[in-house]
Amino acid sequence: MRRFNRGFTLIEIMIVIAIIGIIITIAAPSYTEYLKKGRRAEVVSLLSEQAQSLERFYTKNNVYTGITGLSTGNDFYTITPTIADQTFLLTATRKAGTAMATDKCGDFTLTNTGVRSMNNATTGLTTKDCWGR
After folding, report:
1. Are strands 107-111 and 116-119 parallel, antiparallel or unpaired?
2. 10-131: what CATH class?
3. 56 in helix, strand or coil?
4. CA 30 to chain centre
């Protein structure tokens, strides 16, 4: 009576592991950048929402000072408002120890005149690259 061995050889298993390793090596940086892009979009949205709240407050009171209830950010960015009677500056600073701490777009700023900029960003990036518009 003949027995047929079924299963995979060690070589076949090693080839599959090598292929999976190559795919992960190629896909992981793309996936990480995809996640960072989503987190950037979230903080840009938070900054825009805060600017709208400040503008609504200004419309009613003719000053920006005195507003309450502004967001302090999210898990990856801390939003700090610098508010004067007739101007404001919103700054979203990356939190240390998070995935965004080394993000290429750096920290985001938005002024009362709508000027968008980035601090500590990688050289060569434009506001469109990071703000998405």
Report:
1. antiparallel
2. alpha beta
3. helix
4. 14
Phi, psi dihedrals of residue 34, rounded to the nearest 5°: -60, -45
Q: What is the band of 133 on the pLDDT scale with cuts at 50, 70, 90?
A: low
Task: Give the count of beta carbons closer than 10 Å to the beta carbon of residue 64.
Answer: 19
Question: Among 91, 95, 121, which residue's Cα sits nearest to residue 39?
Answer: 95
Q: 55-60 — which CB contacts under 8 Å span 24+ positions?
A: 55/112
Report the alpha-carbon distance of residue 14 to residue 103 in Å, rounded.
35
- Contact between 95 and 77 (Cβ < 8 Å): yes
pLDDT tens column, 13-41? 999 999 999 999 998 888 988 999 999 99
Q: What is the pLDDT of residue 2?
A: 67
Q: Which two tokens stand for residue 91?
A: 């700054």
| Cα separation, 23 vs 31, whole angstroms | 12
DSSP 78: E
- Residues 40 and 62: their CA atoms lie apart, in Å, by 31
Contact 111, 81 (CB under 8 A): no
CB 93 within 8 A of CB 110: no
